[in-house]
Write a structure and sequence with these properties.
By secondary structure, this protein is α/β, with parallel strands linked by helices. Helices cover about 40% and strands about 20% of the residues. α9 links the parallel β11 and β12. The protein starts with a strand and ends with a strand.
Protein backbone atom coordinates (compact mmCIF):
# COMPACT_ATOMS: atom_id res chain seq x y z
CA UNK A 1 0.00 0.00 0.00
CA UNK A 2 1.96 3.00 -1.30
CA UNK A 3 1.46 6.44 -2.78
CA UNK A 4 1.96 6.20 -6.54
CA UNK A 5 2.25 9.90 -7.42
CA UNK A 6 3.53 12.64 -5.10
CA UNK A 7 3.27 16.30 -6.09
CA UNK A 8 5.76 18.74 -4.57
CA UNK A 9 5.43 22.51 -4.72
CA UNK A 10 8.58 24.28 -5.92
CA UNK A 11 9.00 28.02 -5.32
CA UNK A 12 11.90 30.51 -5.32
CA UNK A 13 12.12 30.58 -1.52
CA UNK A 14 15.09 29.33 0.48
CA UNK A 15 13.12 26.40 1.96
CA UNK A 16 12.26 24.87 -1.40
CA UNK A 17 15.43 22.79 -1.72
CA UNK A 18 14.93 21.16 1.69
CA UNK A 19 11.27 20.49 0.87
CA UNK A 20 12.26 18.81 -2.38
CA UNK A 21 14.83 16.69 -0.54
CA UNK A 22 12.08 15.56 1.81
CA UNK A 23 9.74 14.76 -1.09
CA UNK A 24 12.49 12.81 -2.88
CA UNK A 25 12.96 10.56 0.16
CA UNK A 26 9.24 10.04 0.42
CA UNK A 27 8.90 9.19 -3.27
CA UNK A 28 11.84 6.78 -3.04
CA UNK A 29 10.34 5.01 -0.03
CA UNK A 30 7.02 4.54 -1.82
CA UNK A 31 8.37 3.83 -5.29
CA UNK A 32 6.31 6.81 -6.44
CA UNK A 33 6.54 9.20 -9.34
CA UNK A 34 7.59 12.62 -8.05
CA UNK A 35 5.95 15.51 -9.88
CA UNK A 36 7.32 19.01 -9.37
CA UNK A 37 5.18 22.09 -9.93
CA UNK A 38 6.46 25.66 -10.20
CA UNK A 39 3.84 28.39 -10.27
CA UNK A 40 4.54 31.90 -11.54
CA UNK A 41 1.94 34.41 -10.37
CA UNK A 42 1.72 37.42 -12.67
CA UNK A 43 1.44 40.91 -11.24
CA UNK A 44 -1.53 42.84 -12.56
CA UNK A 45 -0.99 46.62 -12.45
CA UNK A 46 -3.93 49.02 -12.24
CA UNK A 47 -6.14 49.18 -15.30
CA UNK A 48 -4.97 52.62 -16.44
CA UNK A 49 -1.37 51.36 -16.57
CA UNK A 50 -2.38 48.22 -18.47
CA UNK A 51 -4.31 50.39 -20.93
CA UNK A 52 -1.14 52.34 -21.76
CA UNK A 53 1.57 49.72 -21.37
CA UNK A 54 -0.29 46.38 -21.35
CA UNK A 55 1.68 44.77 -24.18
CA UNK A 56 5.07 45.78 -22.76
CA UNK A 57 4.18 44.61 -19.26
CA UNK A 58 2.88 41.29 -20.54
CA UNK A 59 6.01 40.69 -22.62
CA UNK A 60 8.28 41.54 -19.68
CA UNK A 61 6.40 39.25 -17.32
CA UNK A 62 6.43 36.40 -19.83
CA UNK A 63 10.21 36.74 -20.10
CA UNK A 64 10.65 36.76 -16.31
CA UNK A 65 8.32 33.77 -15.97
CA UNK A 66 10.15 31.74 -18.61
CA UNK A 67 13.51 32.39 -16.96
CA UNK A 68 12.20 31.55 -13.48
CA UNK A 69 10.53 28.35 -14.69
CA UNK A 70 13.70 27.27 -16.49
CA UNK A 71 15.85 27.82 -13.38
CA UNK A 72 13.37 25.92 -11.22
CA UNK A 73 13.20 23.00 -13.62
CA UNK A 74 17.00 22.78 -13.89
CA UNK A 75 17.32 22.73 -10.08
CA UNK A 76 14.56 20.10 -9.78
CA UNK A 77 16.15 17.80 -12.35
CA UNK A 78 19.62 18.25 -10.90
CA UNK A 79 18.48 17.46 -7.34
CA UNK A 80 16.36 14.43 -8.30
CA UNK A 81 19.13 13.10 -10.55
CA UNK A 82 21.73 13.43 -7.78
CA UNK A 83 19.40 11.42 -5.52
CA UNK A 84 19.01 8.70 -8.16
CA UNK A 85 15.30 9.34 -8.63
CA UNK A 86 14.38 8.73 -12.26
CA UNK A 87 10.59 8.52 -12.09
CA UNK A 88 9.80 12.24 -12.22
CA UNK A 89 7.55 14.76 -13.95
CA UNK A 90 7.87 18.52 -14.29
CA UNK A 91 5.04 21.05 -14.58
CA UNK A 92 4.88 24.84 -14.90
CA UNK A 93 1.87 27.05 -14.35
CA UNK A 94 1.25 30.76 -14.95
CA UNK A 95 -1.52 31.10 -12.40
CA UNK A 96 -2.55 31.75 -8.81
CA UNK A 97 -0.67 29.17 -6.66
CA UNK A 98 -3.63 27.62 -4.81
CA UNK A 99 -5.61 27.22 -8.02
CA UNK A 100 -2.67 25.74 -9.92
CA UNK A 101 -1.76 23.26 -7.18
CA UNK A 102 -5.37 22.20 -6.62
CA UNK A 103 -5.70 21.47 -10.35
CA UNK A 104 -2.47 19.46 -10.55
CA UNK A 105 -3.28 17.64 -7.29
CA UNK A 106 -6.12 15.86 -9.08
CA UNK A 107 -3.44 13.66 -10.63
CA UNK A 108 -1.53 12.90 -7.42
CA UNK A 109 -2.08 10.90 -4.25
CA UNK A 110 -0.31 13.36 -1.96
CA UNK A 111 0.76 17.03 -2.13
CA UNK A 112 3.91 18.25 -0.35
CA UNK A 113 4.17 21.95 0.46
CA UNK A 114 5.99 24.14 2.97
CA UNK A 115 4.81 25.98 6.05
CA UNK A 116 4.37 29.72 5.54
CA UNK A 117 7.33 31.88 6.55
CA UNK A 118 7.01 35.65 6.62
CA UNK A 119 10.81 36.01 6.36
CA UNK A 120 11.09 33.92 3.20
CA UNK A 121 11.14 35.29 -0.35
CA UNK A 122 8.93 32.57 -1.83
CA UNK A 123 6.13 35.01 -2.66
CA UNK A 124 3.55 32.73 -1.01
CA UNK A 125 0.76 34.32 1.05
CA UNK A 126 0.73 33.44 4.75
CA UNK A 127 -2.64 31.67 4.42
CA UNK A 128 -1.46 29.59 1.44
CA UNK A 129 -1.34 26.19 3.26
CA UNK A 130 -4.82 26.38 4.78
CA UNK A 131 -6.35 27.68 1.53
CA UNK A 132 -4.80 24.82 -0.40
CA UNK A 133 -6.00 22.18 2.08
CA UNK A 134 -9.49 23.62 1.85
CA UNK A 135 -9.35 23.70 -1.97
CA UNK A 136 -8.22 20.18 -2.83
CA UNK A 137 -9.60 16.70 -2.31
CA UNK A 138 -6.07 15.35 -1.84
CA UNK A 139 -4.13 15.13 1.43
CA UNK A 140 -1.57 17.88 1.94
CA UNK A 141 1.69 17.19 3.76
CA UNK A 142 3.09 20.42 5.20
CA UNK A 143 6.79 20.63 6.05
CA UNK A 144 7.89 23.06 8.82
CA UNK A 145 10.24 25.82 7.73
CA UNK A 146 12.59 25.13 10.64
CA UNK A 147 14.14 21.86 11.76
CA UNK A 148 15.49 18.75 10.07
CA UNK A 149 13.35 15.69 9.43
CA UNK A 150 15.49 12.70 8.45
CA UNK A 151 12.55 10.32 8.84
CA UNK A 152 8.82 10.56 8.36
CA UNK A 153 6.07 8.24 9.44
CA UNK A 154 8.05 6.12 11.88
CA UNK A 155 6.14 7.44 14.89
CA UNK A 156 2.78 8.95 13.93
CA UNK A 157 0.37 10.88 16.14
CA UNK A 158 -3.22 10.79 14.85
CA UNK A 159 -5.52 13.56 16.10
CA UNK A 160 -9.02 12.11 16.33
CA UNK A 161 -12.29 14.00 16.82
CA UNK A 162 -14.81 11.75 15.06
CA UNK A 163 -15.44 14.17 12.17
CA UNK A 164 -15.48 13.59 8.43
CA UNK A 165 -12.27 15.61 8.07
CA UNK A 166 -10.38 13.51 10.61
CA UNK A 167 -11.74 10.29 9.10
CA UNK A 168 -10.61 11.39 5.65
CA UNK A 169 -7.15 12.34 6.94
CA UNK A 170 -6.67 8.89 8.46
CA UNK A 171 -7.78 7.18 5.25
CA UNK A 172 -5.41 9.38 3.22
CA UNK A 173 -2.52 8.62 5.59
CA UNK A 174 -3.00 4.83 5.42
CA UNK A 175 0.12 4.25 3.27
CA UNK A 176 2.18 5.94 5.99
CA UNK A 177 0.31 4.41 8.92
CA UNK A 178 0.71 0.89 7.54
CA UNK A 179 4.52 1.15 7.53
CA UNK A 180 4.95 3.07 10.82
CA UNK A 181 6.81 1.64 13.79
CA UNK A 182 4.36 3.28 16.21
CA UNK A 183 0.93 4.85 15.76
CA UNK A 184 -0.78 6.83 18.53
CA UNK A 185 -4.44 7.84 18.34
CA UNK A 186 -5.29 10.82 20.51
CA UNK A 187 -8.64 12.41 21.22
CA UNK A 188 -8.67 15.57 23.31
CA UNK A 189 -11.63 16.24 25.57
CA UNK A 190 -11.70 19.77 26.92
CA UNK A 191 -13.34 20.83 30.18
CA UNK A 192 -15.08 23.67 28.38
CA UNK A 193 -16.44 21.50 25.56
CA UNK A 194 -20.16 20.67 25.60
CA UNK A 195 -19.90 17.96 22.96
CA UNK A 196 -20.05 14.28 23.75
CA UNK A 197 -16.90 12.66 25.09
CA UNK A 198 -14.73 11.38 22.25
CA UNK A 199 -12.70 8.21 22.68
CA UNK A 200 -10.35 6.40 20.35
CA UNK A 201 -11.30 2.76 20.94
CA UNK A 202 -13.34 2.32 17.78
CA UNK A 203 -10.71 3.94 15.58
CA UNK A 204 -7.96 1.77 17.07
CA UNK A 205 -10.01 -1.36 16.39
CA UNK A 206 -10.66 -0.17 12.82
CA UNK A 207 -6.94 0.38 12.22
CA UNK A 208 -6.13 -3.05 13.63
CA UNK A 209 -8.41 -4.62 11.02
CA UNK A 210 -6.24 -2.87 8.42
CA UNK A 211 -3.15 -4.43 9.96
CA UNK A 212 -2.13 -1.18 11.72
CA UNK A 213 -1.38 -1.50 15.42
CA UNK A 214 -2.13 1.68 17.35
CA UNK A 215 -2.05 2.86 20.94
CA UNK A 216 -4.62 5.10 22.62
CA UNK A 217 -3.28 8.38 24.00
CA UNK A 218 -6.53 10.19 24.85
CA UNK A 219 -6.42 13.29 27.03
CA UNK A 220 -9.28 14.16 29.36
CA UNK A 221 -10.17 17.50 30.93
CA UNK A 222 -7.57 19.48 29.02
CA UNK A 223 -7.43 23.14 30.05
CA UNK A 224 -4.90 24.55 27.57
CA UNK A 225 -5.66 25.02 23.90
CA UNK A 226 -5.82 21.85 21.83
CA UNK A 227 -3.25 22.88 19.21
CA UNK A 228 -0.51 23.35 21.78
CA UNK A 229 -1.53 20.13 23.51
CA UNK A 230 -1.08 18.26 20.23
CA UNK A 231 2.36 19.80 19.71
CA UNK A 232 3.34 18.99 23.29
CA UNK A 233 2.20 15.38 23.00
CA UNK A 234 3.95 14.99 19.63
CA UNK A 235 7.17 16.08 21.33
CA UNK A 236 6.63 13.73 24.30
CA UNK A 237 6.10 10.78 21.94
CA UNK A 238 8.98 11.78 19.62
CA UNK A 239 6.45 11.73 16.78
CA UNK A 240 7.77 12.61 13.32
CA UNK A 241 4.32 13.15 11.78
CA UNK A 242 0.92 14.43 12.89
CA UNK A 243 -2.21 13.38 10.99
CA UNK A 244 -5.34 15.50 11.41
CA UNK A 245 -8.42 16.90 9.72
CA UNK A 246 -8.50 20.56 8.71
CA UNK A 247 -11.32 22.59 10.24
CA UNK A 248 -14.93 21.44 10.17
CA UNK A 249 -17.58 22.23 7.60
CA UNK A 250 -17.67 25.74 8.99
CA UNK A 251 -14.98 27.69 10.82
CA UNK A 252 -17.70 28.81 13.23
CA UNK A 253 -18.38 25.21 14.20
CA UNK A 254 -16.77 24.39 17.55
CA UNK A 255 -15.23 20.95 17.03
CA UNK A 256 -12.52 20.01 19.48
CA UNK A 257 -9.80 20.02 16.82
CA UNK A 258 -11.23 22.87 14.76
CA UNK A 259 -9.21 25.58 16.51
CA UNK A 260 -6.08 23.44 16.45
CA UNK A 261 -5.67 23.79 12.69
CA UNK A 262 -4.34 27.34 12.73
CA UNK A 263 -2.12 26.66 15.76
CA UNK A 264 -0.38 23.77 14.01
CA UNK A 265 -0.08 25.67 10.73
CA UNK A 266 1.60 28.56 12.56
CA UNK A 267 3.68 26.66 15.14
CA UNK A 268 4.27 23.15 13.76
CA UNK A 269 7.42 21.42 14.92
CA UNK A 270 6.98 18.23 12.85
CA UNK A 271 5.42 17.59 9.44
CA UNK A 272 1.61 17.55 9.44
CA UNK A 273 -0.65 15.69 7.03
CA UNK A 274 -4.01 17.44 6.71
CA UNK A 275 -7.21 16.66 4.82
CA UNK A 276 -10.44 18.53 4.54
Amino acid sequence: MNYKTILVHIDPGRHSEKRLEFAIRLASNHGACLAGLYVFSPYLPPGYIMAQMGAEIEAAQNKIAAEAMSRAEDAFRKQTSAAGLANIEWHNAYDEPVHALALQAQYADLVVIGQSDSTDDSGMAMDFPERLVMSTARPVLIIPHTGDFPSIGKRILVAWNATQEATRAIANATPLLSSADSVYVMAVNCKSSKQEIICSDNMVRYLERLGIRAEIKDLQNVEIDVGNELLSRASDLSADLVVMGCYGHSRLREWVLGGATRTLLESMTVPVLMSH
